[in-house]
Write a structure and sequence with these properties.
Layout: H1 3-22, H2 28-56, H3 67-71, H4 84-88, H5 96-110, H6 127-137, H7 140-143, H8 146-164, H9 166-169, H10 175-185, E1 190-194, H11 201-212, H12 217-220, E2 221-227, H13 233-242, E3 247-251, E4 266-271, H14 302-311, E5 313-324, H15 333-343, E6 347-353, E7 365-371, E8 382-387, E9 393-396, E10 399-401, H16 404-418, H17 429-435, E11 448-452, H18 453-458, H19 466-469, H20 475-515
Parallel strand pairs: 1-2, 1-4, 2-3, 4-5, 6-8
Antiparallel strand pairs: 5-7, 6-7, 8-11, 9-10
């Protein structure tokens, strides 16, 4: 199918599905999982049909085909009663919601690896809405192939997250941020961990990176995830399946649990963890070797996450993650932890990102990159700082992303710093020529600068890129003010959220007393 045709289908599907929701009584959260489940059914049926002739060849009534025969081809077995075409053609008298729940149950029964993954509760959807959704998705298995379903699933995840706002940000990281993290990490192969994996976007982009470089993600990557929310784990597992991947995704709380025995076990760690989490029970973490630089005294989980990512890396491992800007300049015990991390030689690259890239927070953030492979090399003593706050594509008034050209350019700055060849398939040639005309890394005022450990020490161990890349010394006061303002605003936002929660509890308690 032509890319233009697929793009039109993707846009049409979302517009139609969103219209059905708008005309129903359902909230976005209530509607999300049932719709994603139908996308999954369409994918499973399409792949089943594509391999059916090949799998059934040589079988007879005495030697019938079994689900195991499909599993041997990495294909899900789809019973007749789970086909979208069957469900869409059911008589009007049938309990349609019950039948769709039965379809999900039947697929799980035939494919044990899907146990407790697929959504239920289709009877809660209005019958008219469910009928329209089935009619929308039923033709897709004969129209589209595997990769297209993965893209559609990503579209729906992205759009649902945008509608849910802060709630959506808990399970979805915007694609352009994930792609930049992956492009800088370069996960050509190995064990990959995301201890706050949400819907699994880091894994999907890692697989796409391998495929773009002519490799097989199934053979090259082994993925492991941890997700705290019960209802998000199925989103991640469906996302992996839709992209032809398998992985070990566990429901657990990464502060207190280590289900994958992560210490020194992973080639790549990538994550978008929740920022500035308070009230973590640090007494339960005493002596935990996942925190080699000690417990931060601040009531804030940022440096617990950062240490977890560092501790999980193998001797040559790399980590890339999103972090609140304030972590780069946090003082007291957090500064002492940051100093130890810098002195370990593992801090490799820091990238400042402008506001409005995320659904959960509007504040600017920083991408941190660790690389234990630099220890013992000349790069052990240096950190590359990139200020990308002026580089973005404005989607609408409230949201930004990176264009393919921009993310490729930023990754190419890192490649030049590492002495690697650049990539230009995304169209970054002009930006490269303008900033690096000789094809070699140089510091560019306002964009990038390599700082030594001594220079970082002189800046009170700050990892804020703006302190190093500014075009003039006068910028430093502005950067200091911006850092202080961001820190205060993050604290204000956190306290406001707590106040809202307390207000709801008080309102509920008072209402209960008055109604008694």
């Amino acid at each position: 199918m032509k890319a233009m045709d697929l793009g039109k289908i993707r846009a049409t599907l979302w517009a139609a599905a969103d219209e059905f929701r708008a005309n129903s009584k359902l909230t976005t959260v209530q509607y999300r999982n049932p719709v994603l489940g139908l996308v999954f059914l369409a994918y499973a049926e399409s792949r089943f049909d594509a391999f059916k002739t090949e799998v059934e060849e040589g079988h007879t009534p005495r030697n019938p085909v079994t689900p195991a025969d499909y599993k041997a081809k990495s294909v899900l077995y789809v019973p007749d009663e789970a086909r979208l075409s069957y469900l869409a053609d059911l008589p009007e008298a049938e309990d349609l919601g019950k039948e769709v729940d039965g379809a999900m149950k039947a697929i799980e029964a035939s494919n044990p690896e899907l146990k407790d993954i697929l959504p239920r509760g289709y009877s809660r959807l209005e019958r008219s809405t469910l009928i329209e959704l089935l009619r929308l998705f039923a033709p897709l298995p004969s129209q589209l192939s595997g990769d297209a379903f993965g893209l559609i699933y990503e579209d729906f995840l992205n759009n649902f997250a945008a509608q849910e706002g802060k709630g959506g940000g808990e399970y979805f990281t915007p694609e352009s941020i994930v792609r930049l993290i992956v492009e800088i990490l370069e996960p050509f192969g190995g064990r990959v961990l995301d201890p706050a994996c949400g819907s699994g976007g880091m894994f999907v982009q890692s697989a796409k990176f391998v495929e773009r470089h002519n490799g097989s993600a199934v053979r090259k990557l082994t993925v492991f995830g941890v997700e705290q929310k019960d209802d998000t784990v199925p989103l991640a597992k469906m996302n992996l399946a839709l992209h032809g991947l398998s992985g070990d995704i566990r429901q657990a709380n990464s502060y207190y649990e280590d289900p994958h025995a992560a210490i020194s076990a992973f080639d790549f760690v990538m994550a978008n963890p929740p920022f500035n989490v308070d009230k973590i029970k640090k007494e339960q973490l005493a002596g935990d070797s996942r925190f080699p630089f000690g417990m931060p005294k601040a009531d804030n989980g940022n440096y617990l996450w950062i240490q977890q990512f560092y501790a999980a890396l193998s001797p040559k491992g790399r980590a890339g993650f999103v972090m609140a800007n304030s972590a780069g300049d946090a003082g007291h015990s957090e500064k002492r932890i940051r100093q130890q991390l810098i002195e370990s030689g593992a801090v490799d690259v820091m990238v400042a990102i402008s506001p409005n890239f995320f659904y959960a927070v509007t504040l600017p953030v920083t991408l941190w990159f660790l690389d234990k492979g630099t220890i013992g090399t000349p790069r052990e003593d240096t950190v590359l700082f990139i200020d990308a706050r002026h580089l973005y594509n404005q989607i609408d008034r409230a949201h930004r992303d990176f264009s393919t050209e921009q993310s490729e350019f930023l990754a190419n700055i890192v490649r030049l710093y590492r002495g690697e060849g650049v990539e230009t398939v995304g169209g970054s040639e002009e930006l490269l020529k303008r900033n690096f005309p000789d094809g070699e890394y140089v510091d560019v005022a306002g964009l990038c600068r390599v700082a030594t450990r001594a220079e970082i020490s002189a800046q009170d161990w700050s990892l804020n890129p703006g302190r190093y890349t500014g075009s003039a010394a006068a910028d430093e006061d502005n950067d200091d003010f911006a850092v202080r303002l961001e820190t205060l605003y993050e604290e204000f936002t956190r306290l406001s959220d707590e106040a809202s929660v307390l207000r709801r509890k008080v309102d509920s308690a008072v209402t209960g007393v008055l109604d008694a």
